[in-house]
Amino acid sequence: MATCYSSKHSRCSQRRPFEKRCILETSPATDLVSLILHATLLAKVVLAILLVFSALSWGVVASKYAQFRRAAVQTTAFLDVFRRSSRFSEVQAVCANLTASPLVGLFQAGYAEVNAQLRVTPPADPAKPAAPAARPTLKSMEALDRALLRAAGVEVTRLEKRVGFLATTASITPYIGLFGTVIGIMNSFMGIAGAGSSSLGVVAPGIAEALIATAMGLFAAIPAVYFYNELTGKVKGFTVTMDDFAMEFLNIAERNFT
Prior knowledge:
Blueprint: E1 10-16, E2 19-24, H1 28-37, H2 41-84, H3 88-94, H4 102-119, H5 141-160, H6 163-195, H7 200-257
Antiparallel strand pairs: 1-2
């Protein structure tokens, strides 16, 4: 007579009179790991590619959130200094400590353009007596506006750097997962042909591989879509802030130098 034992993960079923058999139930985690380890080489390559995409996209998300957090904090500090200062030179003195803010790039471009225009003085006429120093004026507000627009483009490009990788991940990883799914289904059909049977034991491994590839593709794509939209929205928010600052800078320059 066979000895029957039971545990948390086992169950006993009556086979014959006075005889029992214990059927062990393997945990799902062990089944999944075993299935991946015994998958075909091509399926493992597909899963590895999807894992790399997922890891890189999470790295991009972490780095961009840290960058945007620093940019938001330093932008608040820069605007406080800018609005309290009475001279552009005072603002320029603190720019070196607030380089994470996109407004610093705009201010430095505008400040450089203002200085370049104010340094240009018309040649003195020797036939006329020396006139008192005139109030410094800007020669072209359009040139100042173009300088601010160029700087804004540079800052937006810096903010958007690597965010596009999330869009790439969201776009192609489902198709890579679909490729793994097709391979798993093909293996199932080849198993049926080789065994001459369509029993569950023959088709299950290939179907399981297919489902794992599909799930991994979605695991990489869904967070990438969400965080791409989230980070793109944050970039748009910084863009609005830069547009407002550029208008404020132009108004100050027009009041004081025209």
